[in-house]
Amino acid sequence: MLSTFASRALGTERWTYRLLNQNTSSISNQNQTTIAWSRRWKAAFIGGAILVIVLAWIGLAALARALRIKYVSLDRYQDLCVSSYSTYGHGPVFHTPPNRRAVVTTLYSDGYAIGVAVLGHSAKAANISARLLLPYFEHKVSPKALCIARAVGWEPMPIPRIPPPKGEDAVHWRYKDQYTKLSIWKLDEMGVDSAVYLDADTMVRSNFDELFDSPFNFAAIPDVWGGRRGFSVDFNAGVLAFRPSTAVFGERHAKKLEIATYPIVEAEQAFLNLYFGPTALRLPYIYNANLAIKRRNPALWKRITDEMRVVHYTLVKPFVSNLGKPADALLSPEELDEAVTIVEGQYGGLFKEEVGWWKEEYEMMMMVHGHTIEQCYSS
Q1: What are the extents of the domains in the chain?
Q2: What is the pLDDT of residues 4-19, one digit of tens each?
Q3: How many Å apart are CA 17 and CA 360, to the nearest integer?
Q4: Taking Cα atoms as reference points, which of 276, 275, 319, 125 lies closest to residue 205?
Q5: Which of 27, 271, 283, 310 is 20 to 30 A (C-alpha) from 125?
Q6: Per CATH, the architecture of 98-378 is what?
């Protein structure tokens, strides 16, 4: 037998390699730990990358909002106004007789019927010397709602709906019927020379007869928004003093709506700002005391409170259902009491006093016309 050395020298013995004497279970645990840490690093890296992307997106969005050019009708003005409808009307000495004046609002559903009634009663209580005209949708407003409106002095007049010119989907759902407001310019056909339009969610606080004798053909009040937009040079279409003109309505409706460039989502208000932007008389906030003013600047609201002619319930509506019923539903007196209580607590009770004004006017209306209104409900 060859010796081990000789065997190796002659190549008759195979070289063999053996692992060192180690604990195999320990090796397995170390490998698993390494893999686990690797996965954690990958997850952390991916999570960090996602976080960076999200933060970058938020930052860019904030920057875009900060740099965004706010739409102002005067900056993007198009000359759309018919030449015969100038800035001035009949001159500063022209006085419109009461039978040729009108306070006008619109009623598109039963849900605003009580609001319309309170508005009409408040106008009468403030001794506004004008007719009360109520354009309404015949197919959407019930006989009960019309009965309630008539009880306080409104003259209902059915009108056809004017659809959004760019399609129904282009307009915010709350404003889909609002282009119909443009038809109030045809009131000259009913013998009206001077008119004040009031949204159905407004209420008269004191007399504004001076608006009927304004020398201007069109007047409105600058708008107020929440958030960054704040106080605006564009006007709010909830209160308008104007001289009706069927010629203007026909020319504007037939030719201008389709070619005008404005924020379509804001419907007729944006269009009117474009159309009357350079010629409108801008009135003080006392003629359209938008509740957004109080939320935006309580000191300003306090300053104008004693002189308010019209308060505008933009942010809270005492007559609209908060009880699970559709917004276009006519509330019973019992439901209305509950709805008012709910509205008083909205926005942390910020508008409790103003809701109280509306409630007081409603109660006064019911004292005078309650019997007739109750008969309307039972008809």
Answers
A1: 98-378
A2: 444 444 444 444 444 4
A3: 103
A4: 125
A5: 283
A6: Alpha-Beta Complex (3.90)
* DSSP conformation class of 221: E
Contacts of 350 (CB under 8 A, 6+ apart): 294, 295
Q: Report the DSSP pairing between strands 101-104 and 194-198.
A: parallel
106 closest CA partner among 23, 202, 173, 5 = 202
Distance of alpha carbon 99 from alpha carbon 254, whole angstroms: 30
Burial of 87 (0-12, 13-18, 19+ CB in 10 A): middle
Cα separation, 135 vs 105, whole angstroms? 7
Write down the residue that tokens 């201007």 correspond to.
Answer: 216
This prediction has a pTM of 0.80
Helix axes 113-125, 143-151, angle to 10 degrees: 10
Q: What is the pLDDT of residues 312-362, one digit of tens each?
A: 999 999 998 766 677 788 999 999 999 999 999 999 999 999 999 999 999
Cα separation of 214 and 218, whole Å? 9
Question: Residue 330 in contact with residue 142, Cβ under 8 Å?
Answer: yes
HSE, CB side, 13 Å, CA atoms: give it for residue 102: 26
Q: Measure Cα distances from 81 to 51, 240, 354 in Å.
A: 52, 17, 37
DSSP state of 232: E
